[in-house]
Automatic annotation (TrEMBL):
InterPro entries: Pectin_lyas_fold (IPR012334), Pectin_lyase_fold/virulence (IPR011050). This is Uncharacterized protein. It comes from the Bacteria. It comes from Candidatus Stercoripulliclostridium pullicola.
Length: 304
């Protein structure tokens, strides 16, 4: 069956199975309280709504969610936006042999409750953004608002023209968040604009680290473009201390809070490969990055 839907919303208590269905929509599909969510051989198209969710799962209980052999998923900002709006956590999300545009995001929004996102696996995927890269990182793993993300395993992913290959970000918009036990391996990224980043934060003299991250077998190539390392705010070059905390975000340049959000300075990260700050147990191996031909920056600010 091939059909384009503007919106599909369902409340399901049993098993949800999508097979061979084409979606092109403001919101491609929304499934609430599904015991099992299984997508096989399903192409998703969001070409007319590039800034909306390709697939949104809300209030999903603990179980296993699989996309297997999905041919095509196109989205400008995020494809899998996995959130919880209450005490019900998500767990065991898996995607396999899936072509995806731009991003997989594991996020938590709890409204005061402690939310856990754990046991997430994605492998053998293709992420792409036509034309000039934009939006989020190819892979964005983020924890904020007291949410906890752990045991994420991503492997064998090819990215074409994403902005940054990888962003692992522990934010401090609210205290109590945790981000740990992350493995990302077998990443090929071509035509990127920004380095990868693994960042925690320091607040009121207390350090909050991203813990136990393993990165291995990366092959990254930059898109050729003019590189300007001095980005101005009101005709002044920002030279203050870097602060990668706050709400997780990555666009063309990194975000530094030095007074408040409206007076933020924007500037490029000082490396072309990997930036890491406030981490504990970071292991990096076979991390190969080819910068722009006139690059003047170091590969990383950490040794590996």
């Amino acid at each position: 069956m091939k059909r384009k839907l503007k919106i599909s919303v369902a409340v399901v208590l049993g098993t949800v199975l999508l097979a061979g269905i084409a979606f092109g929509a403001f919101v491609a599909a929304m499934y609430i309280e599904a015991a099992t969510f299984d997508v096989k051989g399903t192409p998703f198209e969001s070409e007319y709504y590039m800034d909306e969710e390709g697939l949104f799962l809300g209030n999903i209980p603990r179980d296993e969610y699989i996309t297997d052999g999905t041919e095509y998923m196109e989205e400008g900002e995020r494809i899998f936006d996995i959130r919880s709006y209450g005490a019900s956590p998500e767990a065991d999300f898996k995607t396999n042999r899936t072509a995806i545009n731009a991003a997989i995001t594991e996020a938590s929004e709890a409204g005061g409750a402690v939310v856990v996102v754990s046991d997430v696996t994605a492998r053998n995927c293709y992420f792409f953004m036509p034309g000039i890269a934009g939006g989020y990182a190819g892979i964005a793993i983020e924890a904020v608002d007291g949410g906890k993300v752990s045991n994420v395993n991503l492997s064998n992913i090819y990215m074409d023209h994403v902005t940054s290959p990888l962003l692992i970000w522990l934010g401090y918009r609210k205290d109590g968040s945790a981000l740990e036990d992350i493995s990302v391996t077998g990443i090929t990224s071509v035509g990127c604009d920004l380095p990868s980043a693994v960042v925690g934060y320091k607040k009121s003299g207390e350090t909050h680290n991203v813990k136990n991250v393993t990165l291995s077998d990366f092959s990254v190539t930059y898109r050729e473009a003019k590189e300007d390392t001095n980005i101005y705010l009101k005709n002044k070059v920002y030279s203050g201390k870097m602060n990668m905390g706050g709400y997780p975000e990555i666009t063309r340049v990194s975000h530094a809070y030095f007074i408040n959000h409206t007076l933020s300075g924007y500037y490029d990260l000082p490396v072309y490969g990997l930036y890491a700050e406030y981490t504990e147990g970071l292991t990096v191996s076979n991390f190969d990055v080819t910068p722009r031909s006139y690059n003047t920056r170091a590969l990383s600010n950490v040794a590996f």
